[in-house]
TrEMBL record, chain A:
GO biological process: phenylacetate catabolic process
NCBIfam families for the chain: PA_CoA_Oxy1
Gene Ontology molecular function: phenylacetyl-CoA 1,2-epoxidase activity
High-level lineage: Bacteria, Pseudomonadati, Pseudomonadota, Alphaproteobacteria, Rhodobacterales
This protein's name: 1,2-phenylacetyl-CoA epoxidase subunit A
Gene for this chain: paaA
Basic and acidic residues biased stretches: 13-23
Name of one Pfam family that matches: PaaA_PaaC
Entry annotated with the keyword Oxidoreductase: yes
From TrEMBL, chain B:
The protein's name: 1,2-phenylacetyl-CoA epoxidase subunit B
EC number: 1.14.13.149
InterPro entries cross-referenced by the UniProt entry: PaaB, PaaB_sf
Signal peptide range: none
GO MF entries: phenylacetyl-CoA 1,2-epoxidase activity
């Protein structure tokens, strides 16, 4: 979901008979929940799919800083400002954990960042929506990070060791993100009528983009089978989405806000909430690059990278000079 | 890619007298910056009181294919564990 629509590099799931000895031993490890580690043998397609998924996940963490960074200087109180700053800093850290995990597969961080900046890798569709006011910041923390948690808790059990360990670290920090968001929205929902109206508007606008984060319906999700067999993906898009809806609806009701989708209704028989499908044509359009903020986000990323070039170069030149001086002294 | 900062492995010692533990890695131009970055990335919530950094290329690791020869011999040496020995209750705690 922070990684959506990952194309699995595979021609379909192989039967045991068609597997080589190496592939069979590899699949046995996965079936027995033994983690795959960087130096272990792995199929090329497993490696390639993981790089795509972890890379996209990392990019999402980093690009995700932009809509929230937009409001740091305009936070309503000093405390909210310090909290938001800490949250955005966490996201940079999350990006770093994930780039490090991808790096163990042989793709360097700079290479991945370059692919993002060239438009050859994606980040989550959600970050192509704008944050128009302070209520959106609360709603993003609560709904977007809330959705991320649902996905990432499942991914703690993913088969690749470094990815799983990154997820465990991230989940520990992510709960702060969701709670600070809900706390900010609570202040508004229980505030003045104008504030409550803003909170309602934010929930209305962000609900469908948030449930789109889990990716297309399982029936449309063509690449899942191999990723599930490899335990790169642990739960299906629809399972995760349902889990998110079930946990979030009572939170909306607690705030005294109207549900953002008239289709939300408790289904006694299923033991779950029913809800409406988002407009999937909008989703595919955003993925294609035509969302409200795609151009801005990528431009901001490229600018940050280019503006930082002299710092990276300067520090590297300094360390090389020091190393050369040390060598000469020895 | 050329001009990429080298990769450093980061080890943190927690509060309670435990040994340094590997927590992850990061890029930095030199050791001093690696420590500064590690402080920002890995100790934001009181996770540690001491940081070690080692450039990743200097870490030598055992090979996964040596797992058998390296670790299997210890499986048959159960007498290395205290629970192997039954001590009569009358003797008391040992």
């Amino acid at each position: 979901m922070y990684a959506q629509m990952i194309k699995t590099a595979s021609d379909g799931v192989k039967s045991r008979e068609d597997m080589s000895d190496e592939e069979r031993a590899f699949q046995d490890k996965i079936d027995n929940d033994i983690k795959i580690e960087p130096k272990d043998w792995m199929p090329d397609d497993y490696r390639r799919t993981l790089i795509r998924q972890i890379g996209q996940h990392a990019h999402s963490e980093v690009v995700g800083q932009l809509p929230e960074g937009n409001w740091i200087t305009r936070a309503p109180t000093l405390e909210r400002k310090a909290i938001l700053l800490a949250k955005v800093q966490d996201e940079a850290g999350h990006g770093l954990y994930l780039y490090s995990a991808a790096e163990t597969l042989g793709e360097s961080r700079d290479e991945l960042i370059n692919l993002l900046h060239e438009g050859r890798m994606k980040y989550s569709s959600i970050f192509n929506y704008p944050t128009l006011n302070w209520a959106d910041i609360g709603a993003v923390g609560w709904l977007v990070d809330g959705a991320a948690i649902v996905n990432q808790v499942a991914l703690q059990r993913t088969s690749y060791g470094p990815y799983s360990r990154a997820m465990i670290r991230i989940c520990k920090e992510e709960s702060f993100h969701a709670r600070q968001g809900y706390h900010a929205i609570m202040a508004m929902a229980f505030g003045t009528p104008e504030q409550k109206k803003m909170a309602q508007d934010a929930v209305n606008r962000l609900w469908f983009p948030a449930i789109m984060m889990f990716g297309p319906n399982d029936s449309e999700s063509t690449h899942s089978e191999q990723s599930m067999a490899w335990k790169i993906k642990v739960k299906s898009n629809d399972e995760l989405r349902q889990q998110f809806v079930d946990q979030t609806v009572p939170q909306i009701l607690y705030l005294g806000l109207d549900l953002p989708d008239p289709g939300i209704k408790w289904n006694e028989e299923r033991g779950h909430y029913d809800f409406s499908d988002p407009d999937w044509s909008e989703f595919f359009n955003v993925i294609k690059g035509n969302g409200p903020c795609n151009t801005d986000r990528l431009a901001a990323r490229r600018k940050a990278w280019d503006d930082g070039q002299w710092v990276r170069d300067g520090l590297l030149a300094h360390s090389r000079k020091k190393a050369a001086a040390r060598m000469a002294a020895e | 890619m050329k001009n990429e900062w080298p990769l450093w492995e980061i080890f943190i010692r927690g509060q309670h007298g435990m040994s340094h533990r590997h927590v992850g890695s990061l890029h930095a131009p030199d050791a001093a910056m690696a420590i500064k970055n590690a402080r920002d990335v890995y100790t934001r919530r009181n996770e540690g009181v001491s940081i070690w950094v080692v450039e990743a290329q200097h870490v030598a690791a055992s090979s996964p294919s040596d797992k058998g020869p390296l670790y299997e011999p210890s499986e048959s040496k159960v007498y290395r564990h205290p629970t192997f020995f039954d001590i009569p209750e009358e003797v008391g705690a040992m």
